[in-house]
Amino acid sequence: MEIKTKKLETLTTEVAAYFHKLSYSDSRISQYRSAWQRLATFMENEELHLYSAAVGESFIYHLICDRSFEELNRWEKDIIQCVNVLTEFQKTGFVKFRRIQKFRELKGPVGDSMNDYIAYRKSFGIAKGTIDEYKLHLSRFLHYLNEIKDFSLGSLNHRHINDFVYNLGFYTPYTRHRMLSILKGYFSYLYDNNQLEIDYSQTIPKEKFVKQPKLPSVYSKDEVESLISAIDRSNPKGKRDYAMVLLAARLGLRASDICNIKFENLLWEQSLIVLTQHKTGKRIELPLMSELGEALIDYLKYGRPVSELPFIFLRMVSPYDRLNRSTLHSIVCFYLRRAGIKYEGNRKHGPHALRHSLAGILLEKKTPIPVISEVLGHKNTESTKFYLKIDLQSLSQCSLEVPPLSTPFYEGGM
Question: Region 114-122: what's the mean pLDDT?
């Protein structure tokens, strides 16, 4: 039996085009591409040039290691699905277990009013992702209304709304909160435009939803050093990876800024790295420490492919394009595993976690908040205060003693 093989870049391009024909959203296709980039990094490390079902299987075994499938997190399970999609498409030319978005069409008189509302909201410049969210949640309400015989906006009443809200219990608190918020705005729009005689937005119950901020994912100083030590610098790829990881761990640079660093950003005579951050647009100056400078020189002299591109960090195989953020994420994950550092639970395991870790290490050293803010390139110190939540040593000093309770309390007395 002939084994089907194909260049990974060619195969992923074909699958992405196939998904476009199936009306997959750009964001969903981007998720597939991110997973495929993890596969590309694996193939690059293993010096594999053509994709086959066997290569996909090897990558999945590499990803799972000695764990069971149930122990994988949701992102890892998604990666496996994305790889299986490639194998399925390469074998058959289509994907049997495709996921097609079903909320793009808002039809009928009520659907037309929903489209008018979305167009109204769009005039305020809301993002495409928010528009998709409006379509999704309004389509759920429209689907409910379509189940009602001879329904029209004129026949809408409180019972319809209460019944719909009652059936939202199985959604997550955040999804329920967003759905009710969008419905509230939709009803208010209909009332203001004389399409409803009653302002049903007042009927929507208030959700006491408070989005709890997540704690930053951090690694200890010893874990960061173990990660750096796990990088084999005897080969060109290791020299590149070492320099990139140092930029994240020592200077706290974001992945996008590391991948976009150019020769013009390195001011060797002043021992500075000067760049404009991709996320904030803020210009920052960071010290080009000797450890980092030596790592960059080692990579530029003995590891970087010959290329006229202005970017420092390039792929190790042709075409020698600059790296992207997802590749750097895979690089950090690879060396975390090699160092034996576990990131079970919700602890993030990409370059941004190294940025968080640097903030934590600086806090342990009692570094003032304004200084940390300058190092991380924040526009103001309010963003930096987010990291105070992980400074357990300082937080412990703010703890209050629990006052003693009287004996009658333990005895059930009043």
Answer: 93
- Catalytic residue numbers, as ranges: 254, 279, 352, 355, 378, 387
Tokens read off for 114 = 């929903």
CATH number of domain containing 325: 1.10.443.10
Task: Give the domain extent around 71.
Answer: 8-92
Which residue matches tokens 């629990």?
A: 402
* Sheet bearing 266-267, strands edge to edge: 266-267, 272-276, 283-287
229-277 pLDDT per residue, tens:
999 999 999 999 999 999 998 888 888 899 999 999 999 999 999 999 8
**Cα→Cα distances 69→41, 80, 96, Å:** 22, 10, 22
Cβ-proximal residues to 283 (8 Å cutoff; 6+ apart), any chain: 274, 275, 276, 277
**pLDDT at residue 155 greater than cutoff 80:** yes
> pLDDT-based confidence at 372, cuts 50/70/90?
low
Do 162 and 290 lie in one domain? The reply is no
Domain stop point among 66, 92, 118: 92
Distance CA 341, CA 362 (A): 21
Residue 319 lies in a domain: yes
Helix segments in 93-172, DSSP class H = 108-122, 128-146, 158-166
- Residue that finishes a domain, picked among 202, 230, 265: 202
Q: Are residue 137 and residue 244 in the same domain, yes or no?
A: no
- Say if residue 352 is in the same domain as residue 378: yes
**Model confidence at 403: pLDDT above 80:** no
Report how many domains make up the chain.
3
Q: Any idea which residue has 């959203």 for tokens?
A: 25
CA atoms within 13 A on the CB side of 156: 23
pLDDT of res. 380:
62
Indicate if 174 and 233 belong to the same structural domain: no
Local structure of residue 303 (DSSP, 8 states)? T
